[in-house]
Amino acid sequence: MPYRRISRRLALVLGIGVAGLAVGVGVAAVANREPAQSRPAPSVQRLDLSNFPEGEQAPAAAAKPVAANSAAEAVQRFLGANAEQDFATSFGLLDKASREQLKTVATWTDAQAERPAVTAVAVRHERRTGPDTVEVTVAVTHPPAVDPFAGLTPGRTVERWQARREAGRWRVAADPVSVDAVLPGDAGAPAAVQAWVDRLRRCDTAGAAALQATAELYGPAKLADVPCRERGAWKASATRGFDRAGDPQPYLSAFGPEVQTWARLVPVQGPKTRFTAVVAPLGDTWRVLGTDAG
Amino acid sequence: MSRYRRLVAVISVVATLGLLASLTALSPTRASSHREAPLISEDPAADNTDTYVFRSPDRPDTVTLVGNWIPLEEPAGGPNFNKFGDDVKYTLNVDNDGDAVDDIVYEFRFRTSVQNQNTFLYNTGPITSLDDPDFNIRQSYSVAKVENGRRTMVASGLATPPVNIGPRSTPDYEALAVAAVANLKGGGKVFAGQRDDPFFVDLGSVFDLLGLRPLNQAHLIKRPTEKGVDGVGGFNTHSIVLQVPITELTRDHQPLSGPTDPDAVIGVYAASERRQVRVLSSKGDQPSQYGTWVRVSRLGMPLVNEVVIPLGRKDRFNASDPADDAQFGKLVLDPEPARLIPVLYPGVTVPAAPRNDIATIFLTGIPGLNQPAKVTPSEMIRLNMGIAPTPFAQQNPLGLLAGQMDGFPNGRRLVDDTPDIELRALAGGTPFTPDFNKAPNNILTDGVQKNDKPFLSSFPYLATPHQGYDHNHHPVGS
């Protein structure tokens, strides 16, 4: 290709390129030019964030010193502070290992959502478990509830907490050694179900709902509608364990495997239909949680 | 290739870039966490795809929080259409003092009930109401609020609408969706159910070695220039939309005096939790689940886990707490996509690490705008609730870059084009880095500028879901 022809073509291409770029950048600049007040001014140029620690462990916050002269007093004050939602005080009563794990009052407070609220605490007894450790047994009351977030919140529990003497002060571990729910006796469940089914038989759904643990019943839909339609006698019989449920899945999904420890079954026999009521302990009484076809 | 041809090619690319710069700049552009980590990508019901938080344009005394789950949900996915997981706990989390610890958590749990087990049908006739006997597979849900260590039930037994099946099954879908909006005590509202996925991004191109179709000629591996393709177009998601008064979110529950009120800024993210142990049945029964709840997904700022956190740490990110985000800080200060831009787009230069500008946007909030007075760096969407919302019709997808102080990254509105904004931020094309705030860095785009369906101007704001019977997916080249 002759040199002059190449040069002309090169010049032409260069010209088109430069023109394209100029037009592009120019139009872009114009298009991007917002009204002066609308484009935010740079509010920061550089932040000193270059020293991120590689690890995830933040140092534990200094605890607010809280006096406790005995293991029992420490546990009582600890649970009492939680009852009053004074988590700064209960954090101050935590033992060193717990504070290091929980780090801050904020994370400690955050963790309380997974524990039942406390309304009252009574120390039952103490047992020395080591030179500086005492296990304190307490009776605790809670606002009873059943919901799909926390499962069962029993009205009463018996709990064992470990207290430890550290630097002359009694401190408490963040988690109890054990929690035993105090449930109403199984013998009371059939009467609760009978009252419920009697109201259903009278088509008094609002009245029946007042005897339920939750507004919405779990288990197969519509079984609770049957007593209103099926005229005749309906009778609740003896309580059974939840392990005999025909389809436990709706309850397991909603309340977790713990439901097997606190739910009970009460068979209900009508003139033609038979189903099972699933009951939950709400405080000291049994309430209907749902139905089961088994 | 001769020197002459190479020269011609280079000039052509430069000219094309210039022309594209003008095109992208002329049309204001309006990305996230779909299948962003190895483990959660195998668990769609718990996979949080996007989180949004904005002051409600039609009810400015309220803030709307949106969490989406189930990525790339096929509208025609019958007979077992997608639904929320009965075994998942969904949460919307709020930090109102900047310490990266949850102060308020809204929890959601779902429950499926099948009216008739003796049919394979989702519905046995047209569904005309939420209690229609033909509506066979239903989901209801409960809402709880956790604050100051206490959980209180907000509502239970709330109905979700069916999925949008088709003209025979869901002939008036909008009416069903409206019926599923529940009013809450105190002036709030809540909705949970299927919606159109509001996210828009050229997924197909972006994950093809960070391709941007409008800039295909500038890429290291060249392709013909094309318009952007909304990879999420035509797909649905499952949304939880919660609207609450601003006073419910402030630390002292008092009204704000304005944008400079010390309680004005909140940090928000969404998450999902599953029980620790799952045991499969050899009889085909539902799996049994045991143990405490553990976090399996979380998302505040879009695209952080998706493109900033490397493969080996993505699952850990999803399981971790924002308060522990310092462990990921160095990744944000030297983000991989920013290092890739100059490699894949030769000639484009980006600011050198450490990228304090990116850490500011993603981890702390911007001083004077949406950074809490005392902040622990963590991945959350930070919203200054004291800034008035832009009327819905005037919202610009470029958010703060377009001068709208209520737009991303101050909160995140549905219209905000987070892929383009973040792309530009990664390239340094923001006022934080003036030397790089120029073309092409500040005009980078995937070419997808708006959602495939228009958003609603009122609650629940997200568009009606695509119908299974009649929908299209992102036609290439359209």
Summarize the structure.
The complex is a heterodimer of chains A (294) and B (478). Chain A is α+β, with helices and mostly antiparallel strands and 294 residues long.
What is the percentage of strand-forming residues of chain B?
A: 15-25%
Number of strands of chain B: 12
As a whole number of angstroms, the C-alpha radius of gyration of chain A is 34 Å
Largest sheet descriptor of chain A: 5 strands, antiparallel
Shape of chain B: globular
How much is the average pLDDT of chain B?
A: 91
Which percent bin holds the helix content of chain B? 10-25%
Written as H for each helix and E for each strand, in order along the chain, the element string of chain B is: HEEEEEEHEEHEHEEHHHHHEH
Tell the overall outline of chain A. elongated
The count of DSSP E runs of length 2 or more, i.e. the number of strands of chain A, is 12
Number of helices of chain A: 10
CATH hierarchy class name of the largest domain in chain A: Alpha Beta
Furnish the topology, listing elements before pairings.
The complex is a heterodimer of chains A (294) and B (478).
Chain A: H1 3-32, H2 71-83, H3 87-92, H4 96-102, H5 105-111, E1 120-130, E2 133-141, E3 145-147, E4 151-153, E5 156-166, E6 169-172, E7 178-181, H6 189-201, H7 205-209, H8 226-229, E8 235-236, E9 240-241, H9 249-255, H10 259-262, E10 264-269, E11 274-282, E12 285-292
Antiparallel strand pairs in A: 1-2, 2-5, 3-4, 5-6, 5-7, 8-10, 9-10, 10-11, 11-12
Chain B: H1 3-26, E1 48-55, E2 62-73, E3 88-95, E4 104-114, E5 137-147, E6 150-159, H2 173-179, E7 182-183, E8 189-196, H3 203-206, E9 236-245, H4 246-249, E10 265-279, E11 288-299, H5 304-308, H6 311-319, H7 329-333, H8 336-344, H9 356-364, E12 381-384, H10 418-426
Antiparallel strand pairs in B: 1-2, 2-9, 3-4, 3-10, 4-5, 5-6, 7-8, 8-9, 10-11, 10-12
Describe this structure in words.
- The complex is a heterodimer of chains A (294) and B (478).
- Chain A contains ten helices and twelve strands.
- Chain A has 294 residues and is an alpha+beta fold.
- Chain A folds into two domains: 169 residues, Roll (Nuclear Transport Factor 2, Chain: A); 107 residues, Nuclear Transport Factor 2, Chain: A.
- In chain A, the strands form three sheets. In chain A, strands 1, 2, 5, 6 and 7 form a five-stranded antiparallel β-sheet that branches. In chain A, strands 8, 9, 10, 11 and 12 form a five-stranded antiparallel β-sheet that branches. A two-stranded antiparallel sheet of chain A has the order 3-4.
- In chain A, a hairpin with a 4-residue loop joins β10 and β11.
- The N and C termini of chain A lie far apart (93 Å).
- Helices cover 18% and strands 23% of the residues of chain B.
- In chain B, β5 and β6 form a beta hairpin.
- At the A-B interface, α1, α5 and α9 of A face α1, β4, β5, β6 and β11 of B.
